[in-house]
Backbone:
């Protein structure tokens, strides 16, 4: 839902110099009762009726109700009201603000704002409404105005819950305002992107050297897809929303295609990041071969530390090459019995002998997948009675193997080369 700027805001934008730099949709001015939907992942400037440069007015009595599909935080960089009657007294007879987590009730009060009051809000502090509703009441009396406040309000994305009953899907189809646009939306970079996704090195309009990310219907499985466009200079990171719990044990499936398969088309990598603002924390788990046809892939994050984010990285491409991603799904791996102590017991130029211990006598069959990373190469079903010293005999020279037991996906033998 888009926030419609009030008439006042439009006028303020035209008439006052401070508003000229403010983004209309991202500025909230408390000059009347308002109900506003806060978008997760967005930050808004929040001012009294005088804006950042002027005082609020007399006899104001306004309520601002914010709602968000996630959390809401507010942080004041300035707060100055008419000082209260004497120090430490918190009196409703002078100007004051009340901030609630939810509806107005004493139990929901987060903080009070009133200069001189002993328990007035502290600047530089995040106050959070975890309920997803924040109610702000503001009153001024009939004399002595002051500077008011400068604050930021932020919609915080709640971690996405994924479990055996709940799967995360993003098919990009609910963002329909930019379809059928192969090169770049004419409103770039202010076009919609999936809620709670983060992008690093996405161009803010100056391109190159920064790559672009936007939605398009070109080469989508259906509707829209995410288009990553290379700059030839910087890698682009598209980071999924944070998931509740540890992504170890989660699987990501998605469909992608490159525009073509030349070197310039670049490479899509999948991995995880412990810090979604720091590209040096990206750990690659899958390299996607260049494909000019829609190709479905799965990626796993068995070693990801707690709190990691799933991320796409598009790199190595020359200037202005496209890559398309659609139908992103994150789900938990099927529950399965982990193997015990998987190991490579013997390696030769062409063979690898695998061994593992039974941890549950009810296991009756195994399937071993082997691959020349990252492309899947084949699989064999192994009888439970022969789980020891099972030999892979089809290895190619100088290829690395990563045998994985499926459905016992917890088994992963560290890739070692069957090298000559
Ligand atoms: Ca006053
Ligand atoms: Ca002000
Ligand atoms: Ca789609």
Residues:
């Amino acid at each position: 839902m888009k926030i419609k700027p009030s008439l006042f805001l439009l006028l303020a934008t035209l008439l006052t110099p401070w508003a000229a730099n403010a983004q209309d949709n991202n500025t909230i001015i408390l000059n009347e009762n308002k109900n506003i939907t806060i978008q997760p992942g967005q930050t808004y400037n929040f001012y009294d009726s005088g804006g950042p440069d002027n005082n609020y007015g007399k006899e104001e009595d306004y309520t601002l109700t914010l709602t968000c599909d996630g959390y809401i935080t507010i942080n004041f960089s300035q707060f100055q009201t008419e000082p209260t009657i004497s120090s430490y007294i918190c009196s409703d007879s002078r100007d004051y603000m009340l901030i609630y987590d939810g509806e107005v009730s004493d139990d929901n009060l987060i903080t009070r704002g009133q200069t001189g009051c002993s328990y007035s809000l502290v600047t530089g502090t995040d106050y959070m409404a975890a309920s997803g509703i924040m109610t702000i009441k503001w009153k001024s009396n009939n004399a002595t105005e002051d500077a008011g406040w400068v604050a930021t309000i932020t919609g915080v994305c709640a971690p996405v819950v994924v479990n055996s009953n709940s799967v995360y899907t993003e098919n990009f189809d609910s963002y329909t305002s930019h379809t059928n646009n192969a090169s770049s939306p004419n409103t770039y970079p202010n076009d919609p992107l999936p809620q709670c996704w983060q992008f690093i090195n996405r161009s803010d309009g100056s391109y190159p050297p920064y790559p672009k990310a936007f939605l398009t219907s070109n080469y989508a499985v259906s509707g829209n897809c995410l288009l990553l466009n290379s700059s030839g200079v910087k890698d682009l990171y598209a980071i999924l929303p944070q998931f509740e719990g540890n992504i170890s044990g989660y699987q990501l499936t998605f469909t992608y295609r490159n525009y073509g398969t030349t070197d310039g088309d670049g490479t899509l990598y999948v991995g995880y990041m412990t810090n979604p603002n720091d590209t040096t924390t990206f750990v690659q788990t899958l390299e996607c071969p260049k494909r000019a046809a829609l190709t479905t892939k799965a990626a796993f994050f068995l070693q990801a530390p707690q709190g990691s984010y799933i991320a796409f990285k598009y790199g190595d491409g020359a200037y202005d090459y496209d890559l398309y991603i659609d139908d992103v799904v994150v789900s938990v791996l099927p529950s399965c019995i982990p193997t015990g102590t998987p190991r490579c017991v013997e390696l030769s130029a062409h063979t690898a002998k695998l061994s593992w211990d039974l941890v549950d006598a009810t296991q009756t069959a195994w399937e071993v997948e082997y691959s020349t990373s990252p492309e899947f190469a084949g699989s064999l079903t192994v009888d439970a009675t022969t789980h020891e010293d099972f030999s892979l005999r089809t290895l190619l020279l100088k290829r690395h193997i990563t045998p994985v037991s499926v459905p016992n996906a917890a088994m992963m033998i560290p890739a070692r080369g069957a090298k000559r």
Q: What stands out?
A: DSSP finds two helices and 29 strands in the chain.
